């Protein structure tokens, strides 16, 4: 059981060269890594970097980060897998989790965020 209902959805594929590629739906963020664990680490890193950049610029974190393009949201709807399968959990600093929860309109911010996938 996780302390919140906050999760990130990703459409994932394996590229021709064997790398994992993930497109987050809730934030327009594309990640590529050799393994799913690498994808999770890159998602975590990118979210923290987006947060720090916004703070440095004096803007609200994640306020201007759009959703993924429509083609990926459609791929999520058409992919097999029900609500999506959990591939892991990313751990965020408390202030990053709070800012992300605010942007995603989630009632309970969390430092642990579930990542769900559907294969495209």
Shape: globular
Largest sheet: 5 strands, mixed
Number of domains: 1
Give the class from helix and strand content and strand pairing: alpha+beta
Radius of gyration, Cα only, in angstroms? 14 Å
Keywords:
single chain, 35% helix, 120 residues, five-stranded mixed β-sheet, alpha+beta, 3 helices
Written account of the structure:
By secondary structure, the protein is of the alpha+beta class. It has one domain (7-119). The protein has helices at residues 36-57, 70-78, 94-104, and strands spanning 7-14, 20-24, 29-33, 85-91, 112-119. It has a 5-stranded mixed beta sheet with strand order 3-2-1-5-4, sandwiched between helices. Strand 2 and strand 3 (29-33) form a beta hairpin. The model has no long low-confidence stretch (mean pLDDT 85).
What's the helix and strand layout?
Blueprint: E1 7-14, E2 20-24, E3 29-33, H1 36-57, H2 70-78, E4 85-91, H3 94-104, E5 112-119
Parallel strand pairs: 1-5
Antiparallel strand pairs: 1-2, 2-3, 4-5
Q: Care to give the gist of this entry?
A:
The chain is an alpha+beta fold and 120 residues long.
């Amino acid at each position: 059981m996780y302390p919140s209902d906050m999760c990130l959805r990703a459409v994932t594929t394996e590229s021709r060269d064997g790398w994992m590629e993930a497109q987050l739906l809730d934030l327009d963020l594309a990640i590529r890594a050799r393994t799913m664990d690498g994808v999770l680490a890159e998602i975590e890193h990118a979210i923290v970097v987006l947060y720090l950049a916004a703070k440095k610029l004096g803007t609200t974190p994640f306020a201007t980060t759009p959703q993924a393009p429509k083609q990926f949201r459609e791929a999520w709807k058409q992919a097999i897998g029900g609500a999506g399968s959990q591939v892991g959990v990313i751990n965020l600093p408390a202030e990053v989790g709070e800012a992300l929860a605010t942007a995603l309109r989630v009632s309970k911010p969390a430092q642990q965020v579930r990542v769900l996938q559907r294969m495209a």
